[in-house]
Amino acid sequence: DAGVIQSPRHEVTEMGQEVTLRCKPISGHDYLFWYRQTMMRGLELLIYFNNNVPIDDSGMPEDRFSAKMPNASFSTLKIQPSEPRDSAVYFCASSLSPGETQYFGPGTRLLVL
Amino acid sequence: SQKIEQNSEALNIQEGKTATLTCNYTNYSPAYLQWYRQDPGRGPVFLLLIRENEKEKRKERLKVTFDTTLKQSLFHITASQPADSATYLCALDGAGTGANNLFFGTGTRLTVIP
Fold this sequence. Notes:
Chain A is mainly β. Helices cover 0% and strands 55% of the residues of chain A. Chain A is built from no helices and eleven strands. In chain A, a hairpin with a 7-residue loop joins strand 9 and strand 10. The radius of gyration of chain A is 13 Å and the shape is globular. The interface between A and B is medium-sized, with 22 and 23 residues.
């Protein structure tokens, strides 16, 4: 298996633009997680899905953030409009169950100017 | 409030020595605890999982202990090598919190000096 795949790996955009991050989980994993990592706050859970259904989105910072999982092999995290404080590395992870071993993608490094 | 603290942001040790990293938590009652390794520019990679009824677990040069009374886990790397240099994260499951996911510490950056 190729592992969790994320795209793009790097994204540089200007404030106010829409940003879409993409994730393909490991086949057969029922759980998909979106995290944000910064030096100040470490790894923060934004939202997670079970069988394509959002279960806990309490970590989504505000309405500018939205996430979807239209099918078992694809998820998106969208920021609209983006702000400089959104600059971070965004990770997608998948697992067979929510509290056990998670497999992370390589991350998307986002810079909002 | 709930908190996961890892002993220090950075730890430098000499090659061949044992590195010991600490993970302390408050207001959690995890059923298990995990350790991950993260290299620069990459996502965390799972290393070890230890359950609440296990005192110690080993994998090659790695050893993890879990003391639910002290609310602490220790992560040891014996005979450390420069290739062990990375950031190490501990993670707890959300048992008892009402949440069904993992909670991560902020990590300790380990540098093994040749």
